[in-house]
Amino acid sequence: MASAAAVDTMPDALRQSRYHMKRCFARLTGMGRRLMKFEHIKDEIEQTIEDKIERSKVLEGSLGDILSSTQEAAVVPPYVAFAIRHSPGIWDYVKVHADSLSVDIITSTDYLKFKETLFDEDWAKDENALEIDFGAFNVGIPSLALPSSIGDGLGYVSKFMTSMITKGTESAKPLVEYLLTLDHHGEKHMINETLNTVGKLQAALLIADVFVSALPKDTPYQNFEQTLKEWGFEKGWGESAERVRQTMRILSEILQAPDPTNMEAFFSRLPAIYKIVIFSVHGYFGQADVLGLPDTGGQVVYILDQVKALEEELLLRIKQQGLNVKPQILVVTRLIPDAQGNKCNQEMEPIANTTHSHILRVPFNTEKGVLGPWVSRFDIYPYLERFSQDATAKILELMEGKPDLIIGNYTDGNLVASLVASKLGVALGTIAHALEKTKYEDSDVKWKELDPKYHFSCQFTADMIAMNAADFIITSTYQEIAGSKNRPGQYESHVAFTMPGLYRVVSGIMCLIQSSILLPLGLISPSTSHSRRSRNDSPNFNLPLRNYSSARRKTTSTCKSTDSNSDSPSSVVMRTVLSKLYITEENWCFLNSGFLADRKKPIIFTMARLDIVKNITGLTEWYGKNKRLRNLVNLVIVGGFFDPSKSKDREEMAEIKKMHSLIERYQLKGQIRWIAAQTDRYRNSELYRCIADTKGAFVQPALYEAFGLTVIEAMNCGLPTFATNQGGPAEIIVDGVSGFHIDPNNGDESSNKIADFFEMRRGY
After folding, report:
1. Which of 24, 199, 342, 399 has its CA 20 to 30 A from that of 469?
2. Which of 14-18, 512-516, 521-525 has the highest mean pLDDT?
3. pLDDT at 561 over 70
4. Which of 630, 626, 606, 627 is nearest to 617 (CA)?
5. Is 552 within 8 Å of 692 (Cβ atoms)?
C-alpha cells in the first residue's frame, strides 16, 4: 500500500522507467476515453512490458506501490487521472500527461470532472453544476489520526470529552448543564438546581460519598433518598448504596482527573434513554410468514433480535438506576393493506418475548387514498415524506411525547428517521445494512442508465442526507465502513463521487471524522438458536477443517432417523423439510423445482433473495460448468418463486427466468433442488440441520454482502461455510480455519475451491 509521500516520488519513478512508461501511457491513451479499474491497468502494463524481469524492475518501489493502490483511472487523452487509496479513508488524486509524463496532484473535484467528461462532457464543463461539500461542516471538528481507529466511535467520543474536561474546572460546566437536563415526565434525575456549578457538585459528591459509604451496601435507595435530595441529588444514581457510591465516585474522578474509561462508564449509567423508535419501512415487516417475500430478509430478523436485546438492556439499566420507569420501543414500518396472509395489514402488533415493544404500521397515504399493494424498496421514495409526517403524529400519540432515541434502518428507514429526528430534536442513529452504491459497479456515473429501474438518484441522495444527519452510525463490520486493503468500504465509497448531470459530491462522508460505532459480532439468529441448531454439542465459529467430519459424528440423531410416526412439533417440521428437500422425480416438472436423483451425495446449499447482488444464478452457473463439483455434490437453492409471473419485483423476475435458463443449458435435472423462498424461520433452521447431516456445506456467493446473517446461521449449525470475500463475511470467516472465502468474480476458482474441499473430505 502506497503512502501519501509516495505520490511525491511518482515523477522520478516515471522518469526512471521512461521508455516503458511512455509506451504504457501511449497504450492507455491510444484507446481513447475510458474508465479503468486496477485490473485493467495491470493487464495493460503486462501487455506493454512482456519481459517479466523488466516488468518486475519497473513495478518495484514507489511506482509499483502507487499503481497497486490505484482504485481506478479516468483516461481523457492526453491525460490519465488516477484515484489512489493509500489506506482506508486516505486518498490522493494525480494526473499524468501521456507524452511528457509530467505529474500533477489534483483535487477530488478535478478528478471527478475527469470522470464526468467520459459520460457527460458538457455538464463536466458547466460552472453552475451542483457541487456538494459536506466537509465544510466538519471544519473545527477533530478527526481520528489513524485509519485503525475507524469504527471505534464510542471510544473516540469518550477520549474527546475527556480532553475537553482536562482544560480546567470550568471546562466541566457543560457536563453539569447536561446532568441538569435529565428528567422523565417532569421528574428530575441525577441533580437539581442546587448543584448548578462544578464546585458545588464536587463538594456535594465528597459529602455524599462519606455518607453512602457508611451504609450497608445493599441498602435500598429509597431509605436514604431524602437525605441525598437535601444535598441536591435526585433519583438515578443507583438502586442500592453500593451502586450509588460507585456512580458518584466515577463522577468525582472525572471531575478531578478525567479519563476515557471512567467517562464511558459514567455515561453508560445515566438515566437518559427510555423510549426508542426504530424505523424499517420497506418490505413486509412481521414476525411470521414474511421471510423470503420481496425485500424481506435478514433486516427483519436483525431488528426483531435488536428490539429484544434493547428492551432487556433498558430494563436492566432502569433497575440498576433505581427508577420505576417503563421503557417503550416502537418499530415503525409500513402498513400494507394487501398483505399476503400475514399481519402486515394490522396497525399494532406486540413483539413476541417482550413486554414493552410493539410494531407500529403506518400506511402510505396518497392523494387517492391509502396505497394497497407492496412497493419495491427502489420505488418507495415518493411516499416517504408524507409517511414521516404521519408516523411522527402517531409516535407522539402512542408515546405521549417525544422519544429519546430514533434509529433508522436501510436507506428509506434512515431518511425517514432523519426527517423525524430533525423535526422532534431527538438523537439519531442510522444502520445502513447495505448501501446500494457499492453493490452495482459504477452505479454513480451510470446513474442515468440505471435510474429507471433502481432510482439511484433518490437512493444515493437519501443515503448522503441520512449519514450526515446522524449523531452516530452503527455498523457490524470494519469492512462496511472502510473496506479492506484493496477495496473501499461501503461508507468510504461516499467520500467523493459524481452523478453526471445531477450533482458532484466532493466531500460526502469522512471516515476519519464520522467514525461509526462498530458492534462486536455476537448475533445469532433465533432461527438457529441453541435449542434448534444442528446437532453439534455447541456452535463453533473456529472449527478446524479436519474436524468437520468428527463434528458431524457427534450428532445425537440425523434427519434419516427422525421418527416418521412422531407427531411432536420438531418431527412435523422435520418431515416437512424432508419432503421439500427430497421430492421425487414423478412429482417434478420444469416450472416446479427440480429433484435430487442421487440422495447419497452431500449437498451444497444457499439461501437468499433472488437478486443480482446475491448472485444465486452465479452459483448455479459455477455448478453447471464444473463437472468435478457436479460429480461430488448436489445443489440446493432456497429463494424466490419458480414462476416469474408470481413475483412483483423486476429484478427477481429476471433472475427467475435466468435460473430456468441455466438449469436447461447445463442440464441440471436430477442434480439441483430449487425450493421457493421460505417464510417459516423454524423450518429454515431444520433445513440447515438436514444439509449438515448430509455432510454438505453452505455457500454464500454474493457480489457484495455488508454483513451476512445466513453465514452466521450456517456456521452456528456446524455447516462448513464458503462465503464471499467482498464485505462482512471476510471478517466473520478466517479463511481456511473457520470457513472459506470465495471470490464471486471468479467462478472457476470458487467452484474448484468447493470441489477441492469435498474431495478432501472423502478421505476422512
Report:
1. 399
2. 14-18
3. no
4. 606
5. yes
